[in-house]
Design brief:
It contains nine helices and nine strands. With 226 residues, the protein is an alpha/beta fold. The protein is globular. The structure holds uridine 5'-triphosphate. Residues 8-10, 42-44, 47, 51, 65, 68-69, 72, 112-119, 122, 177-178, 180 line the site of uridine 5'-triphosphate.
């Protein structure tokens, strides 16, 4: 099975600790023995720091996004380093490159592509582009919650949701560089149209990625009925 995995920067680069990269590499290697694995890595607090500096100097949102993209690619390089021989050695800059690199059977790891969306959107477009059967979104919480679980202890995890209901939850959020908290509009729209099976799960424990293949875990996004 072809699986696309997006790993939030807030998960993988959070502690600036090499162990998280190695733990992910171990799980991804295991998964790639049976599946074709492609990974998209986010920028995390490092991207937000860089974007903040650029914004303080009056840079446009598009330039800020572009700086964020560079950071996601750096994080992708760290994961490639952790994967060693099992990864394709270069970070693809676009979807056709990613598709091409995957033809050699190695794990492909990329970051962002162009301004105005998140790496979650990149993951959903990549999944559509390569015809993946499963999209796994590794975040810092257990799944999608009805409100921010870091701010509201009473927040409830949603086990299943349609893209339409997710869009409604997003409708009052803004679109500034570095501010996305969960799947952005582009990601949701692509998931809706490609009808790809998508699971949002807790990436603090990378083993959850393996679990999501066979078990019910996190939040399942069910594409809208026709
Ligand atoms: P992400 O917001 O995707 O990083 O990219 P992230 O680390 O996964 O976010 P967390 O972990 O959920 O908090 C960082 C920034 O890079 C720009 C955006 O500004 C984004 O906020 N970016 C990234 C793009 O503009 N285009 C891309 O394709 C990817």
């Amino acid at each position: 099975m072809r699986i696309v995995i997006t790993i939030g920067g807030s998960v993988i680069i959070k502690d600036h600790n090499y162990k998280k990269f190695q733990d992910y590499a171990t799980v991804l290697r295991d998964m790639s023995a049976e599946h074709q694995v492609m990974v998209v890595v986010g920028g995390g607090s490092t991207a937000r720091d860089y974007i903040g500096i650029a914004r303080d100097m009056g840079a446009s949102e598009a330039i800020c996004d572009d700086i964020g993209i560079e950071v996601t690619r750096l994080n992708a390089r760290l994961l490639i380093t952790a994967l060693g021989e099992d990864a394709y050695p270069r970070v693809p800059y676009n979807f056709s490159q990613a598709h091409e690199f995957s033809s050699l059977g190695k794990i492909v790891v990329m970051g962002g592509t162009e301004p105005a969306h998140s790496t979650d959107a990149v993951g959903s477009i990549l999944a559509e582009f390569v015809g993946a059967e499963l999209l796994l979104n590794a975040t810092s919480v257990d799944g999608l919650f009805d409100k921010d679980p870091n701010k509201f202890p009473e927040a409830q995890m949603i086990e299943e949701i349609t893209p339409k209901d997710m869009m409604e939850m997003l409708s009052d959020k803004d679109m500034k560089a570095g501010t996305y908290e969960f799947l952005d509009k582009t990601a949701i729209q692509i998931i809706a149209r490609s009808k790809i099976r998508t699971v949002i799960l807790n990436g603090e424990n990378p083993e959850n990625l393996k679990k999501a293949i066979n078990e019910k875990i996190g939040t399942l996004i069910i594409p809208n009925p026709e």
